[in-house]
Amino acid sequence: MKTITKVYGGYMKFVIVRSMLAGALCLAAVQALAETAEQGKIKEKIEQLKMNAENSQLNLDQYKSNLETVSGNVKELDKAIGSLRDLKRKVMENSKKADQNKGQLDQEKIAVQKLIQKENEQIEREKKQMEELKKKWHELDKNQQQRQANIVQYNQKIAEIEGEKVEWDDQKKQVEEIVKNIEAKEKTALMEREKWAAKEKSYQSEVSKWSQQANTSSGDYKKYKKLAP
């Protein structure tokens, strides 16, 4: 754009110069016609025409240079316009894609909203489950306390049992001592019994012997008693 502004400024200067030169040429032409009669001034007029020709050539060269610059700027602008149009096309395509993407995003939004609804429903269900679990927790906690109390009672009972076991151990020791004494006495009694059993056997033998002897003597007495005077 700076190049275009510079060329445009130069172009305006050359337009002004050209106008001034054209005016000068017209004036020179009039003067040339007026002065044709004057043969002494022909050389001057020729020089003027030469200068005009040179100035015209300079203007031509300058305009050619400016034309090249302007043509280059036009080409650059054509490229820029082409790029802008291409960019516009891409932007429009992207805009169209953006609308399509927005549609897809709306679908995704609906899907996410459904997920949110599902999660909220699950939250409500879990809240109810949590309430039920809280009730169950209180029941279990109450049961735990009761079980702890039961354990305390059971431990007391175990302590009582262990105490009774000690007592039974003491009684067992006493019983063992009693049994030992009984066995000693029984042994003594068995020994005495053997003695008395031996005596009993001896007495039984004597009783049997004397019983026979008594029967014999009694029979003899009865038999011979009748013979007494």
Observed structural traits:
229 residues; mainly alpha; 2 helices; disordered N terminus
Q: N-to-C terminal Cα separation, in Å?
A: 203 Å
Order of helices and strands: HH
Number of strands: 0
Please give the largest β-sheet.
Answer: none
Q: Based on helices, strands and strand pairing, what is the structural class?
A: mainly alpha
> Helix count, per DSSP?
2
Mean pLDDT: 78
- The rounded Rg comes to 78 Å
The percent of residues in helical segments reads over 70%
Poorly predicted ranges: 1-17
Strand percentage? under 5%
Shape assignment = rod-shaped
Q: Oligomeric form of this entry?
A: single chain
Please describe what this structure looks like.
Residues 1-17 have low confidence and may be disordered. With 229 residues, the protein is an all-alpha fold. The termini are far apart. The longest helix is centred in the middle third of the chain and has 184 residues, at 42-225. The chain is rod-shaped, with a radius of gyration of 78 Å. The protein contains two helices and no strands.
Q: Brief overview, please?
A:
The chain has helices spanning 2-34, 42-225.
Question: What are the SSEs and their pairings?
Answer:
Layout: H1 2-34, H2 42-225
Helix pairs in contact: 1-2
